[in-house]
DNA sequence: GTTTTTTTTTCAAACGTTTGCGGAACGCTT
DNA sequence: AAGCGTTCCGCAAACGTTTGAAAAAAAAAC
């Protein structure tokens, strides 16, 4: 069955298309009597305006793009939930695309966004993204890009991040304060700016006051392996830069039979869910995806409101005590 | 800055719009020389076709809608991930909307889908959804609806579900086969149809051959409490109906200091992620959101291919061996 | 019964594509 | 020199809306 159009209604009522259009939007030019007739028929025919036609005509799409490595992730899913919620409230739709952490897919996705004439893009870059031109082109077309979580280094972009420096500081301080002697610090891929920042802040705070074994893992399995190896050096504390790394490290610790926090302490930076799965619960510095999503959205709205100021915003971090340190 | 259009290219090249259009799609009517000229300029100007115009002109939108209570959920996020993946591979976009388990928001979302002229809808209804008319209207417009997970009772719809009965069967059989003597079986809220189905199937298979302590927990914390209490009765096996329950039970077990599987065995029905967080990994009957997503997608494609047969499909469950039983 | 004003409605162009059809321009055959 | 077949390209309509401007109809004023 075909959709109802303005034309169809206009023919049935013997009125022009423009009258129908105006009647439906309660335009003052149209008489009450006509408005009523039109509305009645429109309801009866279940009229819904064709969004494509409107967007084409008005060249306003009310669509945001969102590119993320994977939807299925405890951090990103809450980020997306927040952005979707806000978008819907503000009459925007959301085109969500997964890059699978593949730079080629990422550029395909950006292309798709461009074809859909999005009004703005939320982007979390892949770990291999090196060419930022596709993003710059968007900016050139007056399409604001808000980078989140994994962001480029350059400061010519708008970014929202968890407070990497602060959260790593808090974690390091907590370790120092609890008089630990030797920490195994597990970070993510060395190329990511998030890794660099957390590593730098962590090291700066630790300031060589205690022994530190630093390793980099690309995923949970690598984190597990590296932890198993590193445990031979008998650290008394494990610091994990992220949830993914925490899951790997925890498996290694469980496997080793070490008791937390008696034999070994654990502290992590986390979105908040994973640490609560263990007993004792893991002490972590919270970096909320949901809060970050809200921040990203308000940043987007600011850009659309005309702000051209490029900045990096962060959400504050706080320590959530489990019993693991 | 404005987007490049066919018109712009045509003016710069002194050719007609239709020639540009055909050249870009490699139409045989256009000479190689012209094609080359057009492609070069199009590349230089970074031409991307306006999807809205194409959709309007062709009245084909290549867009699916997906309505889910919440994106931030370890079952739904993997379902969505699968659907997004397939959609993109098949040249469809995906409009993802959250209902927040609110029936009013659900109908708003359906309206939005209609306005966007979606080609099909994936829907997980809210727990309060009673009026299915909005969905029926979609069907009336030849827009197939594939319900997933939480589906209406009526059999006039296409549905894809996890196999509740089968998965509980498999878990119970596994317990029986491993010669266990006393099982603590933890189920969810008694009113949910998913609980009823799994409970019935579990009990039927166990068939009173071994002692069973049956409890119901509404959430992870309750599951933890109930497990702690029930452990006093010295079960040698714990069965968990879902991931949420598993997380609670595992905390209780970790707290108790019991060794898995030596002191106590654990088996669960799960999406697959949570069981891998522990060591040893938990043996579980898989009910994969990801696989369900793939099934839903192929069901959608079948509908679009012309199939009008309404059916309820289930993904088969299989036992994934960890080391917990 | 005109003219003027106000109210109500229609016209027509535009948004950016696709596509059936018609028409040059060219070479080839008679 | 006429006919014919190719090859290449342009015209114009259509998709469903919005919107400025013009026109028509109705009401008011003289």
Question: Gyration radius of chain A, to the nearest Å?
Answer: 26 Å
Content of β-strand of chain A: 15-25%
Q: Describe the biggest sheet of chain A?
A: 6 strands, parallel
Along the chain, the helix and strand elements of chain A come as: HHHHEHEHEHEEHEHEHEHEEHEE
Calculate the terminal CA-CA distance of chain A, rounded to whole Å: 64 Å
Largest interface: which pair?
Answer: A-B, 54 and 53 residues
Tally the helices of chain A: 12
Structure description:
2 copies of one chain form a homodimer. Chain A is α/β, with parallel strands linked by helices and 325 residues long. Chain A is built from 12 helices and 12 strands. In chain A, the strands form 2 sheets. A 6-stranded parallel β-sheet of chain A has the order 2-1-3-4-5-11, sandwiched between helices. In chain A, strands 7-6-8-9-10-12 form a 6-stranded mixed β-sheet, sandwiched between helices. In chain A, helix 1 crosses helix 2, helix 5 packs across helix 12 (289-304) and helix 10 packs across helix 11 (243-256). The mean pLDDT of chain A is 94. Chain B binds a DNA duplex (30 and 30 nucleotides) through residues 3, 5-7, 15-19, 21-22, 25, 28-31, 34, 49-50, 52-59.
């Amino acid at each position: 069955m075909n959709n109802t159009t303005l034309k169809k209604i206009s023919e049935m009522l013997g009125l022009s298309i423009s009258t129908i259009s105006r009647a439906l939007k309660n335009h003052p030019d149209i008489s009450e009597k006509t408005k009523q007739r039109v509305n009645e028929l429109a309801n009866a025919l279940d009229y819904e305006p064709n969004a494509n036609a409107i967007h084409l005509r008005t060249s306003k799409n009310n669509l945001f793009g969102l590119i993320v490595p994977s939807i299925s992730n405890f951090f990103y899913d809450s980020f997306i939930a927040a952005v979707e919620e806000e978008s819907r409230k503000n009459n925007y739709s959301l085109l969500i695309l997964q890059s699978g952490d593949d730079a080629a897919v990422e550029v395909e996705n950006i292309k798709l966004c461009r074809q859909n004439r999005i009004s703005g893009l939320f982007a979390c870059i892949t770990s291999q993204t090196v060419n930022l031109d596709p993003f710059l082109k968007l900016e050139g077309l007056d399409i604001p890009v808000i980078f989140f979580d994994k962001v480029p280094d350059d400061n010519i972009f708008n970014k929202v991040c968890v407070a990497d420096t602060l959260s790593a500081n808090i974690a390091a301080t907590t370790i120092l304060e609890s008089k630990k002697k030797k920490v195994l610090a597990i970070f993510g891929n060395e190329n990511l700016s998030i890794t660099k920042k957390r590593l730098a802040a962590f090291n700066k705070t630790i300031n060589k006051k205690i022994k530190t074994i630093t390793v980099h893992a690309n995923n949970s399995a690598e984190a597990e392996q590296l932890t198993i190896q590193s445990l031979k050096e008998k650290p008394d504390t494990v610091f994990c830069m992220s949830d993914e790394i925490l899951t790997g490290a925890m498996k290694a610790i469980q496997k080793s039979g070490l008791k937390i926090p008696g034999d070994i302490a654990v502290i992590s930076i986390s979105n908040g869910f994973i640490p609560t799965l263990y007993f004792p619960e893991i002490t972590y510095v919270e970096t909320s995806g949901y809060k970050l999503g809200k921040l990203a959205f308000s940043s987007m709205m600011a850009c659309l409101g005309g702000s051209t100021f490029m900045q990096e915003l962060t959400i504050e971090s706080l320590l959530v005590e489990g019993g693991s340190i």
